[in-house]
Amino acid sequence: MSHSRAKIDRFFLMSVVTLTVAGFIIFLSASLGLLAQSGASFATVALKQAISLVIGVGFFFIFSRVKYTELRKWALFIFIGAICVNLLLFIPGLSIHYNGASRWLMLGSLSFQPSELLKIAFIIYIAAWAQFAGDKLKTFKFGLIPYIVITGILSLLLLAQSDTDTLVIIAFTGMVMLLIGGLKVRHMFIGVALLGLLVVGVVIFRPYALQRVKTYLNISADTQGSGYQINQSLIAIGSGQWTGRGFGQSVQKFGYLPQPTDDSIFAVAAEEFGFIGSIILLSFYLLFAAAAFRIANRAQDTFGGLLVVGIAVLVIVESFMNIAAMLGLIPLSGVPLLFVSHGGTALIITLMTAGMVANVSKYRK
Fold first, then answer.
1. pLDDT of 315
2. Ranges in the chain, pLDDT < 50
3. What pLDDT, on a 0 to 100 scale, did the predictor assign at position 258?
4. What is the DSSP letter of 6?
5. Cα separation of 8 and 10, whole Å?
6. Cα gap 249→212, rounded to integer Å
7. DSSP 3-state assignment of 106?
8. Which helix (DSSP H) or strand (DSSP E) does residue 110 occupy?
């Protein structure tokens, strides 16, 4: 197959279009809930998300045309660049403090979340490192040690932003990539154990994390305080029953659910589209992953294959963490439901990474 005539994998393209459209429809309905809150304008929020969507689609097309091997050449610089952008958060006056965390940069009237950039830069770098190391990935020196060093640097950056969730997602994604790349299972267990110790340390020494775990262990203890969000979420999901109340008909989004367009958006979707609608939404994510893994399996080289695996794992783990938190299966996390939640940076970067996967799909073995 000649590369100039190569086409994007149709199955993957279909899964991206389906998720993007479904996500935007759910978002529009959830943002109606903002009408009930003083000062928040439905039109402004919807317009901002629509602009982010258009920019994201633009990035999708750009990155589906830029040959993915270019990313490998620049991997180290992309990674260092992303770290530098995250360091800007520590410059007074540039970052926004919100909900006890400083994770956003203010650029004029636009806010930007640097950790979103860090995720994809990390995936590109790990994929490039795995191709460079080759069979030596099995050794301590080229496998586990670089992973620990890189993850250690990211831990300092992300824990300073109170962003434990992103750290766990990144560390897990990197571990899966290296394991597929040839890391020894024994080394993987050491890496997982170290990550576990880090998370336990965060829970012990950070009051906000400990509170989340306490709430998770006893959801009904403080229904008006720390357990308020999860309880309202479960009410929304439960009242959706089998088929839901119907599009736009969620009651919980009107002043009951905190952040109906952000963390709690799955609860709004479940209330409106019911159990059946929720299962369909989950299946869209699984189709995305299946299409991506098929592309990874056929990729021309290690870098392309692992880049796609990293992106697929990131999207699935982050989205399912959001859903699991809303169902009370794990402690509440501040991660968005990708393709759906309000958050321009996340949507733009997610569509950009989907463009990278689309590009890899053009160059099959």
1. 96
2. 1-4
3. 78
4. -
5. 6
6. 30
7. strand
8. strand 110-112
* Residue 200 CB partners (closer than 8 Å, separation 6+): none
Q: What pLDDT is stored for residue 99 in this prediction?
A: 62
Q: Which of 46, 16, 9 is nearest to 29 (CA)?
A: 46
Q: What are phi and psi of 331, to 5 degrees?
A: -60, 150
Spatial separation of the C-alpha atoms in residues 307 and 352, rounded to whole Å: 13
User: Given this model, what pLDDT does residue 101 score?
Assistant: 65
242 with 304: CB under 8 angstroms? Answer: no
How far from 310 is each of 18, 22, 263, CA to CA, in Å?
A: 21, 23, 23
DSSP secondary structure, 182-251, as one string = T--HHHHHHHHHHHHHHHHHHHHH-HHHHHHHHHHHTTTTTTTTTTHHHHHHHHHHHHTTTT-S-TT--S
Sheet with 101-107: list strands edge to edge.
Answer: 95-98, 101-107, 110-112
The dihedral region occupied by 339, where left means phi > 0, alpha psi between -120 and 50, and beta the remainder, is left
Q: Report the distance separating Cα 144 and Cα 195, nearest Å.
A: 12
Tell me if residue 67 falls in helix, strand or coil: coil
Residue type present at position 173: T
Residue 138 structure tokens: 């099995």
pTM above 0.85, yes or no: yes
Neighbouring CB atoms inside 10 A of 267's CB total: 32
Q: Look at residue 327 and give its three-state secondary structure.
A: coil
